[in-house]
Amino acid sequence: MKKCLIIGITLLVICLGLTIYRELINASINIYDITNSGLKEENKRVYLDATFVAGTINGSSDDSFYVMFGDGVQYIVWMNNKKANEINNFLLDNPEESYKIVGITKEIPTSLEEDGKKFVKEWLDHNHNHENEEVEENHTHDITTDEFYHYFGYVYLDSNNNFDYLKIIIYLTGIVGVLFIINYTNTKYHLL
Q: What is the pTM of this model?
């Protein structure tokens, strides 16, 4: 009978320890640290404090590659279109705030490079030609592959690949621990 209580308490302590551990490691790396260093570190759990959604590079009806700003730098983020619209609306309504996006780093595929260079070119052309309206001829900003990787780094943030196994283990451990304590309480005091 006391075994149930001991097992239940042990499982709840493990649950608490895993919760603390998860909070300590849960996206404690800012994607800036990886992209700024020029590394190609894949499958790292990272976060981005997004401050602006610049637009999409390419995608489908459900998911797209978005260019987002955070820390004064632009990043590529793969995410659900509905979630991106939610983030964009939040940032437009709260211009002084940022929106934390958590995900996994993935290496930018070469298939994305041409679309990304086109996006940057259009972005730079638009900004330059609107800032200097007195200039008669429009300037174009063709960028090289090296410049593309200078703008975005070598990895993008995949926010759709954000399944948290540790969270499931924590919930299961907590539930089983509570069940053991309920079993002990019920056996000792005949409550049920």
A: 0.69
Q: What is the DSSP string of 66-128?
A: EEEEETTEEEEEEEEHHHHHHHHHHHHH-TT--EEEEEEEEEPPHHHHHHHHHHHHHHHHHHH
Answer for the pair 71, 32: CB distance below 8 angstroms, yes or no.
Answer: yes
Report the 10 Å Cβ neighbour count for 22: 14
Nearest to 117 by CA among 148, 139, 141, 146: 148
Q: What is the pLDDT of residues 131-145, one digit of tens each?
A: 555 544 555 667 788
Where are the chain's structural domains?
1-26+164-186, 29-162
Contacts of 171 (CB under 8 A, 6+ apart): none
